[in-house]
Write a structure and sequence with these properties.
The protein is globular and about 30 Å long. Helix content is 58%, strand content 0%. The longest helix has 20 residues, at 32-51. It has 53 residues and is an all-alpha fold. It contains three helices and no strands. The termini are close together.
Protein backbone atom coordinates (compact mmCIF):
# COMPACT_ATOMS: atom_id res chain seq x y z
CA UNK A 1 0.00 0.00 0.00
CA UNK A 2 2.80 2.41 0.85
CA UNK A 3 4.33 2.08 -2.61
CA UNK A 4 0.93 2.66 -4.21
CA UNK A 5 0.35 5.85 -2.21
CA UNK A 6 3.88 7.14 -2.67
CA UNK A 7 3.78 6.62 -6.45
CA UNK A 8 2.41 10.14 -6.95
CA UNK A 9 5.15 11.73 -4.86
CA UNK A 10 8.59 12.72 -6.22
CA UNK A 11 11.11 9.90 -5.63
CA UNK A 12 13.88 12.25 -4.57
CA UNK A 13 11.77 13.45 -1.63
CA UNK A 14 10.98 10.03 -0.17
CA UNK A 15 12.96 7.92 2.22
CA UNK A 16 12.07 4.68 3.93
CA UNK A 17 9.21 6.32 5.81
CA UNK A 18 6.74 8.98 4.67
CA UNK A 19 7.02 10.61 8.12
CA UNK A 20 10.68 11.24 7.24
CA UNK A 21 9.56 13.16 4.16
CA UNK A 22 7.74 15.63 6.40
CA UNK A 23 10.37 15.69 9.16
CA UNK A 24 13.24 16.31 6.73
CA UNK A 25 11.37 18.78 4.51
CA UNK A 26 12.85 22.27 4.33
CA UNK A 27 10.11 24.90 4.14
CA UNK A 28 10.64 27.19 1.18
CA UNK A 29 12.54 24.60 -0.86
CA UNK A 30 9.70 24.46 -3.41
CA UNK A 31 7.49 27.17 -4.87
CA UNK A 32 4.64 27.93 -2.43
CA UNK A 33 1.87 26.27 -4.50
CA UNK A 34 3.94 23.10 -5.00
CA UNK A 35 4.93 23.06 -1.34
CA UNK A 36 1.34 23.11 -0.10
CA UNK A 37 0.32 20.41 -2.58
CA UNK A 38 3.35 18.22 -1.79
CA UNK A 39 2.93 18.39 1.99
CA UNK A 40 -0.81 17.72 1.63
CA UNK A 41 -0.16 14.64 -0.51
CA UNK A 42 2.38 13.28 1.98
CA UNK A 43 0.05 13.90 4.93
CA UNK A 44 -2.86 12.23 3.07
CA UNK A 45 -0.71 9.18 2.26
CA UNK A 46 0.38 8.90 5.91
CA UNK A 47 -3.21 9.16 7.10
CA UNK A 48 -4.38 6.49 4.63
CA UNK A 49 -1.60 4.13 5.68
CA UNK A 50 -2.47 4.62 9.35
CA UNK A 51 -6.16 3.95 8.63
CA UNK A 52 -5.27 0.90 6.55
CA UNK A 53 -7.24 2.03 3.51
Amino acid sequence: MCSELSADLPDEDLGECLDDAIDMYRMGSKPRCEEVEYLGMVREAIDRIEEGS
